[in-house]
């Protein structure tokens, strides 16, 4: 059996380190492990691969993979693999949503505190050598407590569930929208709404966290009308995918102080263009898609992939299987 790793990204951490393929060869001596760092010439390697670890494939590359039975994405998002040839095939697709969930949840909590305690404003005052106690108190929204605040989760997958546990531990009230509310409440979630009830969640939340996959149904789920349904001092946090938010509408709402603030880790275009109006908004925190960064990332990847590889060899059900029809 042949396992092909093909990962190429401009950001170093998203590329598998050399030890990764070496350890796979040591732990699975009966498997041919091929690790290439470029998609160029992939047709020379993919034709006889049974397992492929990759961020994305083009339809013609997938067509060349005559023997592929399982594709694993090291990302949580798999929209880049949702082309008809793969969706309609018998190939099993898995992703790394459970790996990223706890790490992204930590980032969300950091952003909640930064927004609640007005930390970006304090940093700007420090840069100007200003003792801004009165200025910070006079600004809107004022510094506030996290305990007792309501956190509204839009999406209750691996990230959402981890955020809920951490927020509840801080004394926050957690409510959530999930696609199938009949599945019930996850741990630490007090109330669950259907997608059709998003307005209710927005109206009650002090912090709204987007942790949704990107599908045709979730694109621009937060637009001007949804922003208008939020509390005037509420804050929006997006750690899902950039297109979940109408960025122009958000910029307008923040510019007019219609909501209390926002924090974005993901954007419709990445890197965020230098001329984007988002850069100039003082009530917006921008993190450059760093919510999932950790020095333990590839160790966490290895645990999942090696466990799934053992299951695959034994003919058992794999972990983190993607529903290709739903796109997540």
Can you give keywords for this protein?
single chain; 328 residues; alpha/beta; Rossmann fold; 7-stranded parallel β-sheet; 5-stranded parallel β-sheet; elongated
Global morphology: elongated
How many E strands? 12
Element-level helix/strand string: EHEHEHEHEHHHEHEEHEHEHEEH
Tally of distinct domains: 2
- Per CATH, the architecture of the largest domain is 3-Layer(aba) Sandwich
> Can you tell me the CATH superfamily of the largest domain?
NAD(P)-binding Rossmann-like Domain
Query: Considering DSSP H and I runs of 4 or more, what fraction of the residues is helical?
Result: 25-40%
Topology:
Blueprint: E1 2-6, H1 18-27, E2 32-36, H2 43-46, E3 51-54, H3 59-64, E4 70-72, H4 84-87, E5 92-94, H5 97-116, H6 119-127, H7 133-138, E6 150-154, H8 158-169, E7 173-177, E8 191-193, H9 198-204, E9 207-210, H10 224-227, E10 235-238, H11 247-255, E11 261-264, E12 284-286, H12 297-314
Parallel strand pairs: 1-2, 1-3, 3-4, 4-5, 6-7, 6-9, 7-8, 9-10, 10-11, 11-12
């Amino acid at each position: 059996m042949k396992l092909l790793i093909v990962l190429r990204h401009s950001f170093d951490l998203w590329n598998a380190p050399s030890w990764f393929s070496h350890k796979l060869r040591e732990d699975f001596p009966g498997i041919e492990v091929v690790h290439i760092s470029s998609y160029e010439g992939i047709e020379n390697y993919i034709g006889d691969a049974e397992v492929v670890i990759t961020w994305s494939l083009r339809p013609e590359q997938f067509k060349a993979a005559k023997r592929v039975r399982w594709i694993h994405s090291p990302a949580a998002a798999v929209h880049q693999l949702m082309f008809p040839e793969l969706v309609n095939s018998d190939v099993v697709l898995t992703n790394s949503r459970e790996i990223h969930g706890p790490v992204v949840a930590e980032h969300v909590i950091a952003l909640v505190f930064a927004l609640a305690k007005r930390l970006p404003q304090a940093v700007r005052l420090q840069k100007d050598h200003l003792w801004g106690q009165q200025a910070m108190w006079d600004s809107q929204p004022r510094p506030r407590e996290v305990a007792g605040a309501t956190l509204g989760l839009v999406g209750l997958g691996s990230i959402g569930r981890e955020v809920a546990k951490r927020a509840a531990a801080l004394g926050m009230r957690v409510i959530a929208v999930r696609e199938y509310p009949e599945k019930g409440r996850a741990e630490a979630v007090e109330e669950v709404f259907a997608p059709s009830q998003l307005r209710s969640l927005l109206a009650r939340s002090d912090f709204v966290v987007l942790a949704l996959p990107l599908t045709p149904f979730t694109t621009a789920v937060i637009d001007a009308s949804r922003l208008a349904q939020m509390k005037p001092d509420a804050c929006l946090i997006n750690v899902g995918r950039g297109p979940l938010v109408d960025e122009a509408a958000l910029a307008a709402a923040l510019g007019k102080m219609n909501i209390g603030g926002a924090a974005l880790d993901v954007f419709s275009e990445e890197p965020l263009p230098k001329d984007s109006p988002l850069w100039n908004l003082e009530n917006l925190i921008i993190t450059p898609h760093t919510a999932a960064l950790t020095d333990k990332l590839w160790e966490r990847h290895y645990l999942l992939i090696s466990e799934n590889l053992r299951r695959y060899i034994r003919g058992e059900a794999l972990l983190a299987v993607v529903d290709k029809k739903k796109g997540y």
